[in-house]
Amino acid sequence: MASIEEFDPLNTRVPATKIEVTVSCRSLLDVDTFSKSDPVVVLYLQAVGTKEWREFGRTEVIDNTRNPDFVRKFVLDFFFEEKQNLRFDVYNVDSRSCNISKHVSSDFLGQTFCTLGEIIGSAGGRQERTLSGIPGKKCGVIILTAEELSNCRDIATMQLCANKLDKKDFFGKSDPFLVFYRSNEDGTFTICHKTEVIKNTLNPVWQPFTIPVRALCNGDYDRTVKVEVYDWDRDGSHDFIGEFTTSYRELSRGQNQFNVYEVLNPKKKGKKKKYVNSGTVTLLSFKVESEYTFVDFIRGGTQLNFTVAIDFTASNGNPSQPTSLHYMSPYQMNAYAMALKAVGEIIQDYDSDKLFPAYGFGAKLPPDGKISHAFPLSGDGDNPNCVGIEGVLEAYFQSLRTVQLYGPTNFAPVINKVANCAAEITDGSQYFVLLMITDGVISDMVQTKEAVVNASPLPLSIIIVGVGPAEFDAMEELDGDEVRVSSRGRLAERDIVQFVPFRDYIDRSGNQVLSMARLAKDVLAEIPDQLLSFMKSRGIEPRPALSSSPLPEFHRHI
């Protein structure tokens, strides 16, 4: 069996979450002479770089049935930013041989191909697919259900204060702070939180802080939580004041007489007979909230609306010349097409209608040569939608034949157009992703910054991919990872822009698939958190998972 790491040529992936895939089949072929089939399902994952299919795992074998509901699940790491191709092969097993290849010829019952995103993005996380692979025969159906693995996703917010702590500073009082540790199975402790330092007081009141419950106790509510109290020193040699222990269960009772803790210093206690304590720490407040995930919102019906905007300025070069960034070679995709396909093929799994608005900017349009910074690639001013990613590519190539590349490179008109759409639907049912692909420096940076700041409270993320050899330093101003974008003294409410230069992702060996996978991984990695930040800012909770048709009663098994 292959480990999940083998499918990561970059070896840098951090999963958004773990997904449990449950498999059932209906109306399988009957290949056994005197009984029904004994089916097993084998899952293969496709490696990103080599495209090789490797076995990930298999269900148990269920004897004598054409309608199996398998108990053994497949647990997969889910990466929103990658297209995770899956292949499910169904076999009839006459023996309990580990070697599936022995069953390949006569006992192959069918297969299906899909992505993990397609299953998650289906109503209720349930997808029914027709099995194929045996010419002239109906192979039945396979039912795939994806569910996020339940783990402790609660977030605790608490506030503490202390009274009469020991005085540690010669010329002042103390500068106290708290350090929280969770206990491990082997008796060791792992640090999980530090409060801020409160200067020059023996009676500090710390700010409320938030911590995932799993970080505090790993889901075990009675696990020991140790809290140490220190006096901060500039040189890092903080003085130990004392410690106390508690547990998540005790803390969750909130403010009461049991949540006043004596701070004890074992060394002092051993030396001084009259030693009582080194002060007390009191829990002032404690509340728990659920932490929702990207998958919660997708399963609740949130759709991703994907819009594309492509740079048609003259600096790209004449599209008929091989030196042009827009050159349409019969042998390989240009950088624009690669970026569009890499990002679009992943996002399309989360958009049920597969209709994608696509725009160009910086071109002169026929018949009168008017310059436009937001023209529909479809050529239809009333309907900018293209059908699927292939439809967007087709419209892009068609536009290259009909418009004149010109300039300048203005971003604000397209951003404002998509932001206006996003402003109409802010209830959490839709989230907009704008992909802008450009070869040069923005001409309207002041207006673009204003557009980004105005759009930052909306359900919108903007991905900018720079293609070609130009210097893109100015673009970094829009990517608010380090410094939040501002305009006219206003800061963006959220970081909604991600910029990357495509050249950083091009595989040296010329492997376009790997280049595209690297690009998609990086530019899409922030989308789940950006979506969650919008939902949290609006106090939006995910709707219940969309219902789908249940299995007939007689097929259900406990």
Automatic annotation (TrEMBL):
Residues 1-131, 138-261 form the C2 domain. GO terms for molecular function: calcium-dependent phospholipid binding; metal ion binding. Keywords: Calcium, Metal-binding, Repeat. Gene3D superfamilies: C2 domain. Pfam families: C2 (PF00168), Copine (PF07002). InterPro entries: C2_dom, C2_domain_sf, C2B_Copine, Copine, Copine_C, VWF_A, vWFA_dom_sf. GO terms for cellular component: plasma membrane. One of its GO terms (biological process) is cellular response to calcium ion. The keyword Repeat applies. Belongs to the copine family. This is Copine-9 isoform X2.
